[in-house]
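hey so i finally got around to running the thing on that chain from the lab meeting. sorry it took forever, my laptop kept dying and i had to restart like 3 times. anyway pasting the input first so we r on the same page abt which one it is
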Amino acid sequence: MSAQQDSPNRYRRRLLQAAGLTGLGFAVYAYRRGIRFPALSLEPSQLADEINIPDLKIVLHDLFETADEIDDVIELRAFAPEPHMVIHTPPGAILQFKVNNIAEDALLVTEPGTVEVLHDGVSGINRSLKIKTTGSNPISLAWRLPQIEQYSFAAIGDTGAGLELKWCIQRAHQLGARFLLHLGDFNYRPGDYDEAIRLFREAPLPCYVSIGNHDFHDSGLISHKFLRGIGPLNHRFSIGKTRYVNLDTAANTLPVGGGHRGKMMQQLIKEKSQFVDTVAFSHRPLHDPRRCGRRPRYWQQCGTRLADQKT
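ok and heres what got predicted. didnt touch it at all, straight out
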């Protein structure tokens, strides 16, 4: 075989090798990041925890930015009862914030000598804040709940949006709950997503939401709406010695211990000695108590058996 004839064969072999290595690399990356199904997709990216613009850096903890562009007012939403942020900016800067989902009785805490609070407005779970930096050190802004001996919370899911969700939120508030855990599936019909986001933002008490399968995909992936309007797919927070863990079960994850949920679970194991109790909330139940499992053809039989046992 001549050198001219062998050259195309070597080129094809190298091309196949490169394609194989690229495919293998992508498979490893996808497996480590996490694969979701249905619909088949990579694990969604996490929410950004920093805001960076010229002369301003804000590190966010239990907060995320809800507006696409920073104008005169920085708009944020909290997904935990005691969020905080660290601001890096030159002295003399004036910043304005709108922060949603903060308990009405939470107190703003700042570090003396770093900032002057020009305005701290409270309207339900919404805060309007205007500050002026007075020092060169980073500025810490945090909201802290008052110390109370006992508190209650409400939990419900599969409400859809509209009047059902509105009633559940109002009823939780009437019953004296400090916050609502929504277990997902507020999106069933066109327009439900936007309506649910509006109701959560205008609620009389903070709402922490777990994503449901109908909120994750509906004729295609729609989890980006959740991330931009409500919060992260997995998160945790604590009040005293009790921690609350939001687990994303809206779609299967491969590997089951991978993705952001798996990383959070590893961190939870390391932190378990710090807490007395843990409350986990998710859309799908973590344990199915029915004797005959979860096979659809047995659901009716299981329901009859459980009803017999109760009576």
